[in-house]
């Protein structure tokens, strides 16, 4: 899961000291109880004095959500009759129960976490694409890095090594396992070490781990420190990998179809605008994060598609099952719009 705190060095998806899977499952169980208790009471949006519908969106202050900030600034949500306020959370483990209980009407979370939530019986419903791989191996916003003089030359060489990830048993371990397997290696022997993204480059330098999976801006930081990329785990898994999505509860979508449809339309416009105006996407980061200018200008931006790549979501579901993260096949069609 992603996790970060605003106005501190930017952290990506899935979390400085993010909870392990047992923590996520506990949060999902709590969310389920909150959903059952809410019974529709807390999920109704308010109407502002201007006649717009006020909705709260749970986000993480990371690069991925730049489009929604741009969309608010450009008035795309106002055009749909929505008055959007953004509330930052530490990660999807907090955002999912927040959406289920009605604290937020919409939220942002990585795709595997939503699949896991659904498998736990939570009525999550994706409403918009969020962020995706660039699809270019070696030029993606996430990768596994090693020291320049490391004997690790390919994904297969990661087998049996110590690999740092920011969260165990989630999208990063699943995609690393996949690229290792595809390269002919056995991921079963990988020893994953959970570390915050910002601590991974230093752990590699000290030799505490053999490799580390990082995302922007930490990928640029790591390579500027002399590390090299050994594999692009997102692009190597699927060139159109849907890494994260915006979602709501099925209850909210059914009871507030105009607001739900308006949010989807505004997000699609916001995503397209961010994709077409990368300089503005970089610039809006200054309003909710703090990144060194040299890193900010050099880092690789993700892809912001307007449509969810359903095949890549199904692939993630299959891989999560293969890894034992999901114990049964999720209803991918039921999760997606």
Number of strands: 11
Straight-line distance between termini: 22 Å
- The average pLDDT is 88
The Rg value, from CA coordinates, equals 19 Å
Number of domains: 2
Name of the CATH first level of the largest domain: Alpha Beta
- Mind describing the biggest β-sheet? 6 strands, mixed
Content-based structural category:
alpha/beta
Give the low-pLDDT segments: 1-22, 33-42
Helix/strand layout:
Elements (H helix, E strand, L loop, with lengths): L20 H18 L7 E2 L5 E7 L6 H9 L7 E7 L3 H10 L4 E5 H9 L4 E9 L9 E5 L15 E4 L5 H12 L8 E4 L5 H7 L4 E5 L2 H7 L3 E4 L1 H5 L4 E8 H6 L1 H20 L1 H7 L8 H6 L11 H13 L9 H4 L2
Parallel strand pairs: 2-3, 2-4, 7-8, 7-9
Antiparallel strand pairs: 1-2, 4-11, 5-11, 6-9, 6-10
Description of the structure:
The structure is a single chain. The chain has 337 residues and is α/β, with parallel strands linked by helices. It folds into 2 domains: 21-133 and 240-335, D-Maltodextrin-Binding Protein, domain 2; 142-237, D-Maltodextrin-Binding Protein, domain 2 (3-Layer(aba) Sandwich). It is built from 14 helices and 11 strands. The strands form 2 sheets. Strands 1, 2, 3, 4, 5 and 11 form a 6-stranded mixed sheet that branches. A 5-stranded mixed sheet has the order 8-7-9-6-10, sandwiched between helices. Helix 1 packs parallel to helix 3 (92-101) and helix 2 crosses helix 10. The radius of gyration is 19 Å and the shape is globular. The model is unreliable at 1-22 and 33-42 (pLDDT under 50).
């Amino acid at each position: 899961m992603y996790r970060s705190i605003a106005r501190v060095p930017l952290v990506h998806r899935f979390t400085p000291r993010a909870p392990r899977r047992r923590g996520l499952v506990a949060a999902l169980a709590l969310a389920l109880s909150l959903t059952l208790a809410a019974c529709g009471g807390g999920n109704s949006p308010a109407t502002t004095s201007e006649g717009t519908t006020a909705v709260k969106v749970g986000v993480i202050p990371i690069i991925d959500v730049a489009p929604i900030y741009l969309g608010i600034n450009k008035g795309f949500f106002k055009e749909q009759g929505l008055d959007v306020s953004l509330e930052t959370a530490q990660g999807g483990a907090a955002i999912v129960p927040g959406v289920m209980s009605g604290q937020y009407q919409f939220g942002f979370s990585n795709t595997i976490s939503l699949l896991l939530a659904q498998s736990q019986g939570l009525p999550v419903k994706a409403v918009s694409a969020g962020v995706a791989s660039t699809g270019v191996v070696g030029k993606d916003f996430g990768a596994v890095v090693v020291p320049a003089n490391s004997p690790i030359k390919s994904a297969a060489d990661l087998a049996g090594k110590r690999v740092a990830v920011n969260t165990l048993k989630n999208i990063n371990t699943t995609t690393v396992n996949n690229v290792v397997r595809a390269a002919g290696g056995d991921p079963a022997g990988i020893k994953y070490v959970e570390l915050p993204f910002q601590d991974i480059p230093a752990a590699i330098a000290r030799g505490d781990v053999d490799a580390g999976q990082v995302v922007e801006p930490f990928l640029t930081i790591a390579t500027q420190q002399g590390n090299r990329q050994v594999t692009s785990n997102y692009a190597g898994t699927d060139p159109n990998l849907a890494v994260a999505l915006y979602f709501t509860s099925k209850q909210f979508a059914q009871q507030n179809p105009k607001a739900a449809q308006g949010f989807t339309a505004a997000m699609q416009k916001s995503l397209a605008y961010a994709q077409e105006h990368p300089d503005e996407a970089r610039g809006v980061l200054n309003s909710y994060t703090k990144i060194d200018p040299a890193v900010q200008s050099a880092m690789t931006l993700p892809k912001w598609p307007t449509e969810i790549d359903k095949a890549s979501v199904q692939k993630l579901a299959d891989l999560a099952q293969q890894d034992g993260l999901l114990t049964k096949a999720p209803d991918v069609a039921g999760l997606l719009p």
